[in-house]
Specification:
about 400 residues, 2 helices, globular, mainly beta, single chain, 10-stranded parallel β-sheet
Length: about 400
Amino acid sequence: MSFGGGSGSSSISGSTDVVLSSPTNSQVLGYNTSLAKWQNQTVSGGASFVSVLSYGAVGNSNGTAGNGTDDTAAINAAITANPGKVIQFPAGHTYRIITGQSGDADHSGGIKLNQPGTTLFCYGATFVMDISPYQHYQMVDVTAADCAVLGGRFIGDLVAHTGSAGEWGYGISIGAGAHRFTAENVYAKYCWGDGFFIWEYPSDVSLVNCIADNNRRQGLSIIDALRPRVAGGAYINTGMTKYTGPGAGIDIEPDAGSGRNVRDALISGVTASGNGGAGIMTAGQTGAVITATITACLTAGNGIGHGLPGLWVVGVGNTTELISCVASNNEAGGIIVAADAVGTHVTACHARGNGGADWVNNSTSTVAFPVPGVAKQTGVPVTAAGVHAALVNLGLITG
């Protein structure tokens, strides 16, 4: 598919990759949200795509940790020199990333996405982290507003990690100032902590069709945020190579006594499966607030070896609503509401074939559980068609 404009051309080729070639006359390939399609767009001041190769990145790793040229400084130089532009990582390259330039601490290195409005265009590119002993690291550390990471595979150091302490190594860390950040079609694997981590109360962060696979602590943790949105994607296999609790696919859990809160979170159309911990959990803490809606999500085959359920709502200050979710074949329960989770509401959810009880409501509140008028769902088959129908009914997908 080609896009006109100037004497250059922009094209989408292959089944998944988006490729921009030779934009001229201030023409760039951009996504028009109102038309829901990619098209050439005019940008004042010249084309806004900048190749990271122009700043000395090589992308010559063979995918093995420690192999190839360290591209970290070159990538950061491209970001610093081009605020608000699109930094393009040519497809087919594997970029070696080193963290910990400022020691074993938060915000200590890796790719520093710290210029407002900057996008990392990573379709078809892979990023491999160097072997490290660090308790803390961020392969991408997002601290500026209106930034995005589009596509890309981010592979952490879990397999060869040389330390044993800590649990705070992240693929994409989204922190203070990262308002309206978007990650779309990003794959994060083998991180010492989480594939994706949202903290320091950024607002309106969106993760769209992302995959977190076989990270050590969680696929995604949200510990401090306003209106985070997670739409589609899969959070899978947490703890299957190395495990530390909670080990969930997705965990919404502010730290106790920290002043952190998660307000108006929305998790929709997500699959959480094969995790050592719960599939999706919200865990309230003393002095913290959670308000969250989890809708049209599938949790299947979670709690492996650790006796945890598919969907788990626990803790004080926790107001979670579960709508049209499915819990199937989880090790220790389908949908579990703890006694202190008095703000929980459940609507039209199905649970079947789980170890232990499909439904457990230990809450002393007026939670209607199971859903009024619906018998315990052990007789309702969980099928791909049923999940698809639920997503269509909620308007999350079409057809």
